[in-house]
Amino acid sequence: MAKYKIGITEHGDASLDLSWVDRLPEVDGAVLVTKEISHGLRDAVLANKEKLILHATTTGYGGTVLEPYVPPYHENLNHVLDLVNCGFPADHVVIRIDPIIPTEKGLALAFNVFKDAIDLGFTRFRVSIIDMYDHVCNRFVDAGLPLPYGYKVFQPSKKQIAAVDDMLTDVSRYYCGKEPFGGFKRYDTKEIQDVLRNLSIECCAEPELKNAQHCGCISDKDLELLCLENDDDGIGYQRKHCMCYSGKVELLKSKHPCGHQCLYCFWK
After folding, report:
1. Pairing outcome for strands 6-8 and 248-250
2. Cα distance between residue 167 and residue 140, in whole Å
3. Of 73, 83, 153, 225, which has the highest C-beta tally within 10 A?
4. Over the chain, what is the mean pLDDT?
5. What does the alpha-carbon distance between residue 212 and residue 135 come to, in Å, rounded to a whole number?
């Protein structure tokens, strides 16, 4: 049995539904998932900063038909940076590129988000590849958008997963180029490990991805950052391949799409 209760806001958006604030006393820590840093969220996060991990979802699609009411990604990244400059712990921030659409255009966009976030000093990321539920396919068709996998195909092909892995390799190379070694020289194995020590690209429920660290959205690393002891009995919680801490507690009650109205939302 899990030692701790760790809250999360996966049923909605922590910036649009602040009801999680009232539930913080019920949990030992919380992971907030949000697509924007609203004024209300900013104030609540700064008031509870030692108890929170922030997953700032930044896909690159803000303001497009896919995410019509989400801020553009440059704006979102700058607001997250402002939050850090106001005292929120930088190591408690995860830039969540979720979902990635594994087309040529989608991969280029995801890489640009990584690049711009790294340029701002962010080093912890979390990725997932888009799941095409039947109702999501229908939304794409209604919006006149191409289907990345074909009609009513839920998951990417092995070739598309390999393309995501290749993009993540390019991200690591870009990160190396930002280090003071100077440019994209050829590193030996020890050098590359030293350079990438502080770059973290995580994923959960993506078993075929090779170039990301597999861990739950609530992980041992999060427990450590929240100053909680390691809990070996707390592995595994939700769906197949989920690696989240078993003390995971949903803090939001909504079961419908939030005000951001993203076409890929799993809620119908």
Report:
1. parallel
2. 24
3. 73
4. 89
5. 28
